[in-house]
Design brief:
- Helix 5 (about 85-100) packs antiparallel against helix 6.
- The protein has a single domain (about 10-135), classed as N-utilizing Substance Protein B Homolog, Chain A, CATH 1.10.940.
- The chain contains 7 helices and no strands.
- With about 140 residues, the chain is an all-alpha fold.
Length: about 140
C-alpha cells in the first residue's frame, strides 16, 4: 500500500516538527529521532515526501545560525534565545522559505507560518510571527 501524496501545508508541518525537535536533541541524535518520527507517523509519508521533508529540514538546520541572526535583526526587543521554541521553529522555517527557497511565494510562506504558529504556539503566537515576517516581506 503506497502512501498518499502530502499537501504542501502538511509537508511544511512535518518540516516544522523536525526543526522543533532539533531544539531538544543533539545533532548526533537527530537522525535516529527523525527515523522514529517517520516510523510513528499516523499517515506514513511516501519516499518522495519523506525525502523532501528530511532534505528541507536539514537545509534549514544547516543555516540555523545565519537565520537566527536575521531573526534577531528583525525581532525588535526579542532575541531568539528568549523566544518560545514553537515560534522560533516557525520563524526559522519561514525565514528560510522567504530568503532561500525561490519556489515558495513570500505571501504563502507568511500565511503558512502564521497558521503553524496559531496551531502549535501560545495565544498571540500568530500575531508575533506575522509582525516579524512582515518586516522581512517589506524588504
Amino acid at each position: 500500500m503506497s502512501a498518499k501524496k502530502m499537501s504542501r501545508s502538511m509537508l511544511r508541518e512535518h518540516i516544522f516538527i523536525l526543526i522543533f525537535m532539533s531544539e531538544f536533541n543533539s545533532t548526533e541524535e537527530m537522525p535516529n529521532e527523525t527515523r522514529l518520527y517517520f516510523e510513528n507517523m499516523e499517515k506514513p509519508a511516501d519516499d518522495e515526501d519523506r525525502a523532501y521533508i528530511e532534505q528541507k529540514s536539514a537545509k534549514i538546520l544547516e543555516k540555523k545560525s545565519e537565520i537566527d541572526n536575521l531573526i534577531d535583526e528583525k525581532a525588535d526587543k526579542w532575541k531568539t534565545d528568549r523566544m518560545g521554541k514553537v515560534e522560533l521553529a516557525v520563524l526559522r522555517l519561514s525565514f528560510y522559505e522567504i530568503l532561500f527557497d525561490e519556489d515558495i511565494p513570500v505571501k504563502v510562506a507568511i500565511n503558512e507560518a502564521v497558521e503553524l504558529a496559531k496551531k502549535f504556539g501560545q495565544d498571540g503566537a500568530g500575531s508575533f510571527v506575522n509582525a516579524i515576517l512582515a518586516k522581512v516581506a517589506d524588504e
